[in-house]
Predict the 3D structure of the following.
Amino acid sequence: MLSMPVATLRVWERRYQLTQPALTPSGQRLYSADDVQRLALIKQLTDLGHAIGSLAPLAMPQLQAVASTHEQALAATQRHEHAAMGQAPPMRAWRLAVVGAALGTRLQRPQLLRRLDRAVVLLGPFDNIAQAADGLQGSQIDALLFHEPQLHGGWLAAVEAGAPAFVGVPKAVLYSFAADPVCEALATSGTALLREPQPDAVVAQWLNSLSARTASARQSAVELPEPGAHPVPPRRWNDAALAEFVNLSSTIACECPRHVAELLLQLLHFEAYSSACEDLNAADAELHAYLRQVATASRARFETALEHVALHEGLLPPSSAKSEPAAMARAPRRAKAGIAAKPASPS
């Protein structure tokens, strides 16, 4: 899992007391998920040039701080170098969690890595998704790669049940055998599929396409607000009042009041629709809460817009209740620029 010789690990344990693994009755070492996560990070930092003696005394939060500082410093150096050369800055290292020992070994081949469009940090490989979930708690992951010789219909559901924290993480599967309906379902869910055997060039191309897709998704993503972060303003007008206003405003030359009222009706209906959408998982629920908040905020702004455009065109806004149609009678038209409004004559 650490991609390092056992002898090196034993030296580290003996000299620096990195871990104190439990022992089975037969004398075999038993490492916890926290042990594996800490050792994996130390291995990555030593590969980057940090001395094992300086890393050994550090707790996990301190090691993560070292890794973050190193990555920020490296990114800053690369930005300066590329700026001096008039080039665009490179993308940050792609953090890939790998499930499947064979795939993990293959992804370490220099000839494959040279074909990738960006630097890669490999996390794992892990034997299964449960082990990955334990070993990657609190880690930032850009994508999950799986090697599955046989794909079955409940594979994705089993993965999401075994690691709920990874539900929204992009997934890619290198597989050998699967029925067409299984492949269609996974492809529809957004899972990238590649059937083996494939040469390194094709695997690299597959990973590059996944990298481009995930980078594009991050750029277009909107930060989702927390549910309940903003109070939901009540509706100002019901459907019937808006419908009457649409019919009334269609009798004047400018159609803006009618168009705004129609858009407002659509927003109201979408607001209700997003509230009633079925949530398949936690990510769905978060998305629908976000859409409802967007619809609610847009609806409130369109209500204000309708009021402004109605008064500008000489209409009173819709009444707050269907039972008050008199309030929608034509109001004296406001003066246009440079033209005085003629006062209404007394009745």
